[in-house]
């Protein structure tokens, strides 16, 4: 089973009262059904104003992805809040967000390297290096 969320939005508030938003949802549901995905009704979203994430690396471990999400959220008036981290949108805060994304990306690479090393060691019967 593939758990699936649907997110539909329109460009202007006037479009909320037209067939545009329901049509977008219909198309998304059809695509999900065609792919055999199960749409989780609790995760069908129309027009969100805020996104709350525990910590930044749960959004992505890539500074480019994080920057893109923040850029698009800002462009569409969506506020992003972090539950377990204090970040602000000053220039210093944005720089720290970028740096933490870079560190998270490097950590992801380290995790992958260590995981592969452990798998190789186990497949040869050698002790897993620490």
Description:
- It is a single chain.
- The protein is α/β, with parallel strands linked by helices.
- The chain has two domains: 1-47, no CATH class; 48-130, Resolvase, N-terminal catalytic domain (Rossmann fold), CATH 3.40.50.1390.
- The protein is built from three helices and four strands, in the order βαββαβα.
- A two-stranded parallel ribbon has the order 1-2. Strands 3-4 form a two-stranded parallel sheet.
- α2 crosses α3 (91-124).
- The longest helix is centred in the last third of the chain and has 34 residues, at 91-124.
- It is flat and about 65 Å long.
- The chain starts with a strand and ends in a 6-residue tail after the last helix.
- The model has no long low-confidence stretch (mean pLDDT 83).
Q: Structural class from helices and strands?
A: alpha/beta
Pick out the low-confidence regions: none
Distance between the termini: 36 Å
Indicate the overall shape.
flat
Mean pLDDT: 83
Strand order of the largest sheet: 1-2
What summary fits the major beta sheet? 2 strands, parallel
Supply the number of structural domains. 2
CATH class of the largest domain: Alpha Beta
What's the helix count?
Answer: 3
**What is the chain-wise order of helices and strands?**
EHEEHEH
In CATH, the architecture of the largest domain is 3-Layer(aba) Sandwich
CATH topology of the largest domain: Rossmann fold
- Assign a percent range to the helix content: 40-55%
Beta fraction of the residues?
A: 15-25%
Round the Cα radius of gyration to an integer and report it: 20 Å
Say how many strands there are.
Answer: 4
């Amino acid at each position: 089973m593939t758990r699936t969320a649907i997110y539909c939005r329109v460009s202007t508030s006037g479009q909320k009262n037209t067939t545009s938003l329901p049509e977008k949802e219909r198309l998304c549901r059809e695509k999900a059904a065609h792919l055999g995905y199960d749409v989780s009704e609790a995760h069908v979203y129309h027009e969100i104003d805020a996104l709350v994430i525990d910590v930044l690396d749960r959004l992505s471990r890539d500074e480019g992805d994080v920057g893109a999400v923040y850029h698009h959220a800002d462009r569409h008036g969506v506020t992003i809040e972090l539950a377990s981290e204090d970040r602000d949108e000053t220039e210093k805060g944005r720089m720290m967000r970028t740096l933490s994304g870079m560190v998270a990306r490097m950590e992801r690479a380290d995790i992958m390297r260590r995981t592969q090393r452990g798998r190789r060691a186990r497949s040869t019967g050698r002790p897993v290096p620490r």
